[in-house]
Amino acid sequence: MNKNLKTRPPLLSALCLLTFLGNTLGFISYFIASIFFEKTTELIIKYSAWHSAETISPFYFTTLMALFALSLIGAIRMWKLHRDGYFLYLIAQSLILFLPVAWINGQAFSMVNAIFTTIFILGYSLNWRNLK
């Protein structure tokens, strides 16, 4: 075996696999929400504290869908041990976290999303030296 080839550490593999799963589900969910926008807004109003969905549009969901795709690309790049993937992931996840706040309002901030984003960014940061 060639000593120049790096092997992917188990933590990096686990993070990437979980990211593949989460971002794929996010991408599909926002794709469906953008296509079936009217039904999505009905469900939002019915099952949330919102009384109106005037602040969102199909473009909002499409933007989030694109950000999940960018995050997925970043994870694929990190799977291949490329450092640029870390930056793609970091940018996409930061925008996913703060776009709802900027688009809708401060109440759209998700603490759960912030916690998971922080854990994953820290996990990927621990693997920085394994990326080239």
Instruction: Estimate what percentage of residues fall within beta strands.
Output: under 5%
Please work out how many helical segments DSSP would assign.
Answer: 5
Q: In percent, how helical is the residue content?
A: over 70%
Distance between the termini: 19 Å
The low-confidence parts are none
Q: What would you call the shape?
A: elongated
Category by helix and strand content:
mainly alpha
Q: Domain count, please report it.
A: 1
- Average pLDDT works out at 94
Helix-strand pattern, N to C?
Answer: HHHHH
Radius of gyration: 17 Å
DSSP summary, beta strand count: 0
Sheet with most strands = none
Chain oligomer state: single chain
Short structural description:
By secondary structure, the protein is mainly α. The protein contains five helices and no strands. The protein has one domain (10-130).
Can you walk me through this structure?
This protein has 132 residues and is mainly α. It has one domain.
From the structure above, extract its key features.
mainly alpha, elongated
Chain-wise SSE layout:
Elements: H1 10-35, H2 37-47, H3 58-79, H4 84-103, H5 111-126
Helix pairs in contact: 1-3, 3-4, 4-5
